[in-house]
Amino acid sequence: MKERLKTMDLHALLRRLRAGEKDRSVARALNLDRKTVGKYRRWAAAQQLLGADPLPDLAALHALAAATLDQAAPPPQNHSKVEAYRDEIDKLLKQGLRPGLIYQKLCEHPEFTASESAVWRLTVKLRDAQPPEVFGRVETPPGEVGQVDFGEVTPLVDPATGQTRRTWAFSLVLGWSRHHATQRRVRLRPKAPHLAVVPSARLRVLRGLYAQSSIRFRSVAGAA
User: Fold this and answer.
1) Residues 83-101: pLDDT tens digits?
2) What are phi and psi of 88, to 5 degrees?
3) Please, are residues 15 and 55 in contact by the beta-carbon 8 Å criterion?
4) pLDDT, tens digit, for every residue of 100-141?
5) In the prediction, which pLDDT does 79 show?
6) Collapsing DSSP states into helix, strand and coil, what is residue 77?
7) Burial (0-12, 13-18, 19+ Cβ within 10 Å), 102
8) Are the CB atoms for 169 and 154 separated by under 8 Å?
9) pLDDT class of 213 with cuts at 50, 70, 90
């Protein structure tokens, strides 16, 4: 109970209850809510205060109320429907899925009835409980490391023929400056498709930047 009656009011309420008055009559006389009177009636019955024995004096009644009256069980908490899927949601989160896609996957279960907002709230809790992801930053001296990637990309129109051709791209990111160079080509050296053609002008620029480095660039002769 959020507020307890004063000892004098409680004593008066108990006298009326012991006299057999109904909850409505007691509530009207003491200006109380009928539900409040009902709660005090149940408490008094549990403490055996409604029998023929005399009521305790005010001090004893105050001590009894302080010790037992506020020990009512808390109201039951709502149980989330999505709680049963906590482990599965946590696994999907670790795989990199976002709440919307996780909700769609959970909807594949015939018995799943939770809302998308409930899934989102649980993902927030799970993310807050996870330790932060740690990244190791690698520092490299200028001209020593370059990240190279090569592969087929979206087809392009060959300016020489006007036809759509299969296209490959060579990409280079320099480790220290993060300078990024990309070249797309529609022709490759025969029997060496893993080597991309880098225009000589671009090569000269990169070679000039890293003339003293351990990075070596190789153009593909005869593959223009």
Assistant:
1) 889 999 999 988 889 999 9
2) -65, -40
3) yes
4) 999 999 999 888 888 888 899 899 888 877 677 777 777 888
5) 67
6) coil
7) buried
8) no
9) very low
What pLDDT does 1 receive? 42
Q: So what's the pLDDT on residue 76?
A: 52
Which are the contacts of 114, defined by CB distance < 8 A and separation ≥ 6? Answer: 80, 81, 82, 85, 106
CB within 8 Å of 37: residues ≥ 6 apart? 13, 17, 23, 26, 27, 30
Q: What is the dihedral of CA 92, 96, 99, 100, to 10 degrees?
A: -100
Q: How far apart (Å, rounded) are the C-alpha atoms in residues 30 and 16?
A: 10
| Pairwise CA distance, residues 26 & 195, whole Å | 95
Q: Residue 67 and residue 44: Cα distance in Å, rounded?
A: 13
| Strand 146-157 versus strand 180-185 pairing type | unpaired
Q: Domain-by-domain residue ranges, the chain?
A: 7-68, 83-129, 146-209
Alpha helices in 72-199 (DSSP H): 86-94, 99-106, 116-129
Q: How many CB atoms neighbour CB 215 within 10 A?
A: 16
8 A C-beta contact, residue 167 and residue 185: yes
Give Rg (Cα) of the chain: 40
